Automatic annotation (TrEMBL):
It comes from the Eukaryota. Residues 83-396 form the FAD/NAD(P)-binding domain. Residues 415-495 form the Monodehydroascorbate reductase 3-like C-terminal domain. GO terms for cellular component: cytoplasm. InterPro entries: FAD-oxidoreductase/Apoptosis (IPR050446), FAD/NAD-bd_sf (IPR036188), FAD/NAD-binding_dom (IPR023753), FAD/NAD-linked_Rdtase_dimer_sf (IPR016156), MDHAR3-like_C (IPR048618). The keyword Oxidoreductase applies. GO terms for molecular function: monodehydroascorbate reductase (NADH) activity. This is monodehydroascorbate reductase (NADH). Its cofactor is FAD. It is an enzyme of class 1 (oxidoreductase).
């Protein structure tokens, strides 16, 4: 009901925005002409409503028309005004920038405000290839700047300059005024925006300082600086403790095996990856990790982290009093959406993130949110969701910017997708690569013995396939998964249970399409 009222309010806001924006347009055109004559280009705070309707008040303006009406030069960055501002310098920001460039709307118009020291990059590398030992070909920048993760161009700092995009490095937003459409960065820089895209992502959840969460040798991974610090510690470490049995914990532990370190994973659940893996599936992966020397402490809670005489972390003390020695600790216990300072100005907060509609519009006109921080309508499953995954970051960025710049009015219809790739360093005896699509609800049917393939199917009470997981598939097999999860075909459970191989099971599922 609340969301329906919000939708009705957004429709009213749209109409009001059009009327007000049309009234402002005449004055803006006069000032724009003067600015162009002075060689300064032009800037317009025109609302998203007017940009969608076009300057004619009814016909949708093309990108080419907008470029003719407003020839913007790089000199526009000499003042405070920015037509488009992206706050956040992560995955989604990089893909949003690419979409602006593809539509010819970046040069002199777009500014990215980032807390990082480097341009946007493919963040998943930080817990995978970036942590490999030096002799095992670790990933390093500029090798994984966006958008190489999806087969696109590598967008280095020079790429942003060549495309006329201003990037403010290590200068995050610290204050925001929605009424005046103004941002203030930590360096004191003031920016006025026409449209604001919030792409702030998440921050790593941290252990409290009072229990040793900030001791030297305790690491959290969210950016390149974090990963560099961890790599430095791994090079000196002998015993490491990983706290958390989710994605971060499992990927970091796998990388640590490449360093031949004594590695222990501690988590409170009964098995690893509890939000996705079944107990049976988890057991297969746990056994593989144990074969690589990793130890598990399950069902355990951290009481505190102790420091040695040098002040550096020396052990993890559990609630039951047991002690696990460690000279390096990596904490992977989840993440929190980075909604500050925007939560104080009226944007709706849902499931921890900034609530948006299917076009990624927030409850405040001219403000959008994308990527991990956005709580959006998950159309397939009729619920509001926040997805912390690079695939959603990429797709939400593209969808949002295309909606902003064109006449596109198609609702975002995301299919949940997760994956992991570990033990891929040189010399590894077994590489792991799995993918999951859909929703992990209903009865599970597991096929295969992990040699190397294994598949799991989630089937609801109507015999519809809701989700599918596959380890070590071929490209053709992996490409089948989203088709199955999207179509949700009715499958013959008896046949699926009697399948003698993963290949047979996938063929049975394929025949149901």
């Amino acid at each position: 009901y609340k969301r329906r009222l919000w939708g009705e309010a957004m429709t009213s806001v749209f109409s009001l925005e059009v009327a007000l924006a049309l009234r402002r347009k005449a004055a803006q055109m006069a000032s724009a002409a003067a600015a162009a004559a002075a060689g300064m280009g032009c800037y317009s705070q025109t609302s998203w409503a007017l940009r969608r309707l076009g300057a004619g008040g009814g016909a949708l303006a093309s990108a080419a028309t907008r470029r003719r009406n407003c020839s913007v030069a790089a000199a526009v960055f000499d003042n405070q005004n920015r037509e488009y501002v992206i706050v956040g310098g992560g995955n989604a920001a990089g893909y949003a920038a690419r979409t602006f460039v593809e539509h010819g709307m970046a040069d002199g118009r777009l500014c990215i405000v980032s807390k990082e020291a480097v341009p946007p990059y493919e963040r998943p590398a930080l817990t995978k290839g970036y942590l490999f030992p030096p002799e095992k070909k670790p990933a390093r920048l500029p090798g994984f700047h966006t958008c190489v993760g999806s087969g696109g161009q590598r967008q280095t700092a020079e790429w942003y300059k060549e495309n006329g995009i201003e990037v403010l490095y290590e200068d995050p937003v610290e204050a925001f005024d929605g009424k005046t459409q103004t941002l203030k960065t930590s360096s004191g820089k003031i920016l006025k925006y026409g449209s604001l895209i919030i792409s702030t992502g998440c921050a790593a959840a941290r252990l409290p300082e009072k229990i040793g969460g900030d001791l030297p040798g305790v690491h959290y991974i969210r950016d390149v600086a974090d990963a560099d610090s961890l790599v430095s510690s791994l090079g000196k470490a002998k015993k490491i403790v990983v706290i958390g049995g989710g994605y971060i914990g499992m990927e970091v532990a796998a990388a640590a095996c490449g360093w031949n370190l004594d590695t222990t994973i501690i988590f409170p659940e009964d098995h690893i990856m509890p939000r996705l893996f079944t107990p049976s599936l988890a057991k297969k992966y746990e056994e593989l990790y144990e074969q690589n020397g990793v130890k598990f402490v399950k069902g355990a809670l951290i009481d505190k982290l102790d420091a040695g005489s040098d002040g550096r972390v020396s052990s993890a003390i559990l609630k039951d009093g047991s002690v696990v020695e460690a000279d390096t600790v990596i904490v992977g216990i989840g993440a929190k959406p980075s909604v500050s300072p925007f939560e104080a100005v009226g944007v709706n907060i849902e499931v921890g993130g900034i609530e948006v509609d299917s076009m990624f519009r927030t409850s405040i006109p001219s403000i959008f949110a994308i990527g991990d921080v956005a709580a959006f309508p998950l159309k397939m499953y009729d619920r509001i969701a926040r997805v912390e995954h690079v695939d959603h970051a990429r797709k939400s960025a593209q969808h949002c910017i295309e909606t902003l710049l064109t006449s596109q009015a198609k609702a975002y219809d995301y299919l949940p997708y997760f994956y992991s790739r570990v033990f891929e360093y040189e010399g590894s005896s077994r590489k792991i690569w799995w993918q999951f699509y859909g929703d992990n609800v209903g009865e599970t049917i597991e096929v295969g013995n992990f040699d190397p393939k294994i598949a799991t199917f989630w089937i609801d009470s109507d015999s519809r396939l809701k989700g599918v997981f596959l380890e070590s598939g071929t490209p053709e097999e992996f490409s089948l998964l989203p088709k199955l999860a999207r179509s949700q075909p009715i499958v013959d459970k008896a046949k699926l249970k009697s399948a003698t191989s993963v290949e047979d099971a996938l063929e049975i599922a394929r025949s149901s399409l």
